[in-house]
Here is the input.
Amino acid sequence: MKIFLYIVFFLFTFTYAKAEINIKFYINAALENNLRLNAERENNKSIKQNINISRSEFLPSLSINADQTSSQSFNRTNQSGAALPDSNSDNNSKSISVDQKIFQGFKGYNSLKKSELEVKKAGHELNKIKQETILDTAVAYFEYIFNNQNEKFNSANINLFERQVESDSARAQKGEITLTDLAQSESSLAGAKANFIKAETDLLTSKINFERITREKAPDPENLEEKIDLKLPETLQQALNQAKQKNLDLLIAEVDFLISEKELKIEKAKLSPSASLNFSKSENNDFSSTVDKVDEESVKATITWPIIKGGKNLSSIKKSSLNKEKMSLMLQDAKSKVTAETTNAWSKFQSSGSVLIATEAQLKAAEIANEGITLEYDSGNTRTTLDVIQSRSLLLDARITHAKAERDFIISKFKLAFQIGSLSLNSINTL
Here is the structure.
């Protein structure tokens, strides 16, 4: 029984450890911990209260007032100058007032619709920041992997040149090669060390950036999974159609235009007549010298029709009309921009895939060439030290270029998904 429990514990621990090095784990961590995203979540909750505020315009308002007055009169005289006794008076009054707006020229209705549109816009902005967070996490994740590979390639390159310097030093002493050949090897070793230092710095920078975005401790990059799959359209036309429906910049621009329409209607409604109804009930004690107590009830209907406010109302309408025209132009620009950027993202996705295939072939050829040249050089054939150095440099460049192409291809997938508005945690599959 104990052995069975140990096996279960081991499998659970192993599965959990594997989950932690999965890109979806770090994306989920970033979505939970990103400060900008959490701030937008709170802003979204705040904007939702605008709907309740707008709805309150349709509901009656109730107010209760209470007054207590104490007064003392002294040094009183009558018309003939005779003194009158001092007097004290305590007065109190209570009132309840109910106000109900009957008609506001559709101002309240349009205000409510505007609030609903603002909530919709806030939702789009929240989703945009979510997708930006996913994209930033993916870029940092694969940049960290690439820089680790780059550091490994440069480290291996140093080891190769160190062995070559040792070998060339022995061969130079035997007179098999010249001191010039040895100097070339030593120079290449120095260059390889400089490149390694730069690669180490890039790796450290990418590690810090990874931790900043995910707000998680960076793992050993050797354990990070590289292979992922994203749900993407199969053609450019499909990508364009999806972007027109889901691109968040376009959706926000559309909502901004609708909000500007509601704002114009609200300003026009301010010129319309409005009607309200008021009911009040009051109770007064010691109302006057002849009335000790009185209760009153009143109902008042009010109709207001603003005619002119020094030109303010007309200017407000003109301002809102111009703002609507501005939002219309911005919406047209957003449509054109989405088409251009989606086409660009699709082109980069396609070209990066072709580059990846080409660099893979380049890497295989460079490996074969380097192996052959190295064997020929070690066997004392006609190959020179410069041939070996050039071959290794080409191999290093091919390895780095291929690793970079892998990174660029994966990131191009994320950028295309972001552009068409489909980037989410559920759209990412690990292979």
About this structure: The two ends are 35 Å apart (CA to CA).
